[in-house]
Amino acid sequence: MKKPAFIIFGYGLIAMTAAHNASATALTDITASTSSVGVSGVNIERSESFLNCGFTLSFDSIDMSSNREIRLSPVIVGSDGSETALPALIVAGHSRYVQAQRRETLSDSLRLYRFRDGMTIPYSVSLPYKQWMETSTLELRERILGCCKGKISENTQYISTIDFALRTFKAVPLYIAPTAEAVKTRELRGRAFVDFPVNRTEIRPDYRGNYAELGKIQASIDSVRNDRDVTITALSIKGFASPEGPWDNNVRLAKGRTESLKTYVETLYSFKPGFITTSYEPEDWEGLREYVEKSNIAHKDEILAIINGPLAPDPRDAKIRTSYPKEYAFLLANVYPALRHSDYKIDYTVRSYSDPAEIIEVMYTRPQNLSLEEFFAAARTLDPGSKTYNDLFETAVRMYPESETANLNAAACAINRGDTSSASRYLEKAGDTPQAIYTRGNLAAMQGDYEKAIEYFKQAAKLKIAEAPAAIEQTKYLMKK
User: Fold this and answer.
1) In this structure, are residues 443 and 174 in contact, taking their beta carbons and an 8 Å threshold?
2) What pTM value is reported for the model?
3) Mean local confidence (pLDDT), 392-400
4) What are the CB-based long-range contacts (under 8 Å, 24+) for 317-324?
5) What DSSP state is assigned to residue 107?
6) Is the dihedral of CA 121, 122, 128, 131 positive or negative?
7) Which of 57, 206, 368, 418 could form a disulfide with 121 if both were Cys (CB 3.0 to 4.6 A apart)?
């Protein structure tokens, strides 16, 4: 037989059995004497597919007359009400024993014993293991029968608890209340690639893909303007030209095209004069540097050396063009057009929210409007582990991906629902606060790394985390299992 994976041992249960007998609920109104069958040496083992039960029945305190018998029925009772009866026993006085031999159908499921003073009966059985037995109890149901099988009494006594549930760490998540924002300031950034005819600065909406690019700017502004909870405070546009051509001409193009875009936006909205501010970058060398650094272009290091070198813009561009003509041609055709762009930024403020129901509605529609404190305030009104509760912390960390508080709370929420993968990811950005150290202990314990968990919990305890001592004790207990 395969070596059992789990073992429960029980010894010295006679006294405990007597206590249970004293408090057992009688199943009939008959008040005649009940049995005092003792149970000891309980041994319950589980192999992969079978449950093996063994114990010893003792009859030291039984006074059995010749015409009486005790019928003993061990039963496994699941926490869900499921039951499985084990082989029963009849222990009978002399006359009843003789009658039972003649009249009972005896088998492995019904065993007959003749009563003798001080007798003991070793009992063992192996039966198929079922999932519901994972958390159950083993009981012994007793019936005392008299003459003509008249029932004298019934009694049920507890033998043992069966618990093969996987021992896992039960984490107590710890959250941090975020600091409220005095004023909720936000910004929305975008980039448009408005096309201009060569050397021209006036905007032509119907030129190439300009309808779509100008529409991007308008859609961004409208998304903020049309939100009743938002007030736009500033709008800025910065224009960029590409590095080819003379520097002075690129200054003219970048400045003129940016002003044209500003004028175009002003015709669409009734912003007060001076509300839109502009700036420009004559040549987007930073954008070119970023592209080359990430590319596999030939002579990458040499080109980067020129870009980062001391040459002025015009000689720099000429150096790349003359030194690496093939690569320059590729950059001119495929990269330089994207360096002609207009970046815009919309600054705005958002009103505060206090009603949890409204916060939840905004979370699902306009999460960018919420502060971390508002996400947290709404979550506190919900049952931990509910879908909306989880959504609030997950959305909060998505809106504030670099916030240590948002990451710590998202990690605690993930631990609460047993999602160790997400918890591990969030804890990478949760900082080194006492709460973060404690939460790392929770994660380690849930992953079965108890030694590491205790290290974290001891650190947290020194830092006055009240939950840490109990976590240490729980972890130590699991280490012994």
Assistant:
1) no
2) 0.65
3) 98
4) 317/243, 317/244, 317/283, 323/299, 324/298, 324/299
5) B
6) positive
7) 57
